[in-house]
Design goal:
Rossmann fold, 29% helix, 27% strand
C-alpha cells in the first residue's frame, strides 16, 4: 500500500466539447495560472496531481507531480472524482482553476458534418457543475474554486456572486475575477472572513498554495473517519 499523504489536485486549461470528429467547442484558457500554482506547490514540498486540458501545456515533470490529461467536462469530472476518492490520500485539496464549459452539444456526430448547408442549428445542453460535486465525492475535501464574470459586472456584484458560490460549494475560498481582467491576472480572493485583491499570477498562485498548506494532520484524521459516498 502506498503511503498516505496530503495531495493537492490542480485542474487547468479549458475543456473540449466535441461537435463532430474534427470540430469542438472550447474556450481561450490554456492553463497558465494553473501551471504557476503547480510550480509553487511543488516548491513548497507538496504532492500534486495536475489534471491538464489536452489543449494546455503541462507543467514540467517533477518527482512529486503526476499529470493526467482531460478533454470534455464529463471526462474531467470522471478523472477528478477518481483522484478525490483515492484511499491513499490522507487529505485532499482541490484547486479548480480549469475553465469548464457550461454547455456541450446535445449530440456529437461520429463523422465530419457537411459544410454544404449555409446554416446549422447546434443544440446545447448544460454540463453538471463539477464544483458542486466535490463534497459529495469527499466530504472532508478542501475546495478552492474560481469564478469568472463578464466585464460589466461591478465589484459589489462580483463579490456577492463569489460569496454565494463559496457558500453553495463549501469552498474555503473563491478566486473571483472578470473578463478581460482575467488575462491581466487581477482577482479577488474571497473567504468566509475577508476579501482582498490579488494582482498577478504569482500573487494568486501564492494565495492558493497558502490555503492548500492549511490542510492539517487533524483535518486528515477527521477525513479518515468519514464515510465517502459512492457517487
Amino acid at each position: 500500500m502506498r503511503k498516505r499523504r496530503p495531495i493537492l489536485i490542480v485542474t487547468l486549461g479549458g475543456t473540449v466539447e466535441a461537435i463532430d470528429s474534427v470540430r469542438v467547442l472550447t474556450n481561450l484558457s490554456r492553463g497558465g495560472l494553473g501551471r504557476v500554482i503547480v510550480e509553487k506547490a511543488l516548491a513548497r514540498g507538496l504532492y500534486v496531481h495536475a489534471l491538464v486540458s489536452v489543449l494546455a501545456t503541462p507543467p514540467a515533470p517533477h518527482e512529486r507531480l503526476t499529470i493526467e490529461r482531460f478533454t470534455s467536462a464529463r471526462d474531467l469530472g470522471a478523472k477528478l472524482r477518481a483522484q478525490i476518492i483515492r484511499d491513499d490520500a490522507a487529505a485532499v485539496t482541490v484547486a479548480m482553476a480549469a475553465a469548464v464549459s457550461d454547455y456541450r452539444p446535445e449530440r456529437a456526430s461520429g463523422g465530419k458534418i457537411s459544410s454544404a448547408p449555409t446554416t446549422r442549428l447546434l443544440r446545447l445542453v448544460r454540463n453538471p457543475k463539477l464544483v458542486d460535486a466535490i463534497h459529495r465525492w469527499r466530504p472532508d475535501a478542501r475546495l478552492i474554486s474560481f469564478k469568472l464574470v463578464g466585464p460589466k459586472v461591478s465589484n459589489t456584484e462580483l463579490l456577492a456572486k463569489a460569496a454565494r458560490q463559496r457558500e453553495r460549494t463549501r469552498s474555503v475560498a473563491v478566486v473571483a475575477n472578470r473578463w478581460p481582467s482575467a488575462t491581466e491576472h487581477r482577482a479577488w480572493l474571497v473567504t468566509a472572513e475577508t476579501s482582498r485583491v490579488l494582482r498577478g499570477r504569482d500573487a494568486i498562485a501564492t494565495a492558493v498554495v497558502d490555503l492548500a498548506q492549511q490542510a492539517t494532520p487533524a483535518t486528515s484524521a477527521r477525513g479518515q473517519n468519514q464515510k465517502r459516498p459512492a457517487s
